[in-house]
Amino acid sequence: MATRTDAPTRREQILKEAARLFAERGFHGVGVDEIGAAVGISGPGLYRHFAGKDAMLAELLVGISGQLLTGAKRRLAEADGGGPDEILDSLIEGHIDFALDDRPLITLHDRELDRLRDSDRKLVRQLQRQYVELWVDVVRKVYPALTEPTARSAVHSVFGLLNSTPHLGRPGSLPGRGATSELLHRMARGAFAAAGE
Fold first, then answer.
1. Do 39 and 13 meet the contact criterion of CB atoms below 8 Å apart?
2. Which of 53, 93, 127, 137 is 20 to 30 A from 82 (CA-CA)?
3. How far, in Å, CA of 53 to CA of 46, rounded?
């Protein structure tokens, strides 16, 4: 979620613990008292920060979708004349950082997206479509022979690969972060190259 270096706010602490607990035991398997205990406040104290568990779930899933899109746009802006290959590598690195740092959110998205209110679910889908289209544009610049539908399929396939990190084992059981990141990067580029053949 937050990638800044200053201390997380109470609200961010609550969201982080809620994501972890929801991913471990499911949205309905966790009560507000448990989330509060995980951050050192009473369950009812959470209501000073959120209207309830539904609001936490919405902020987590809408928030991460928005952060991914904003981060990708920032990487494009920072490319400053870099070539498409360099931009694609930067996008892949950004998504790998998300996949390694926010594994509970991937699980949460897979399991609980349908629990969001329609308006929140539509917003998540809208943000995700924009994120995908940004990638499709870059992938087609790197592999100009790709049709738009093939590029889109390749992007979704790479997301599936990168978002499989919750199934790779516990964080401590993986090779070092650098080695895991490098492996995922090579696999992502290999998938795009295979689609472009």
1. yes
2. 127
3. 9
Judge contact between 185 and 96, C-beta under 8 A: yes
Residue type, 176: G
pLDDT at 2: 44
Q: Are 61 and 124 in contact (CB under 8 A)?
A: yes
Confidence check: pLDDT of 3 > 50: no
What region, left, alpha or beta, does residue 26 occupy, with left being phi > 0 and alpha being psi -120 to 50 degrees? left
141 token code pair: 């610049």
Q: What is the pLDDT of residue 170?
A: 65
To which residue do tokens 């080695």 refer?
179
User: b/e for 176-191, b at 16 or more Cβ within 10 A?
Assistant: eeeebbeebbeebbeb
Q: 89-109: per-residue pLDDT in tens?
A: 999 999 999 999 999 999 999
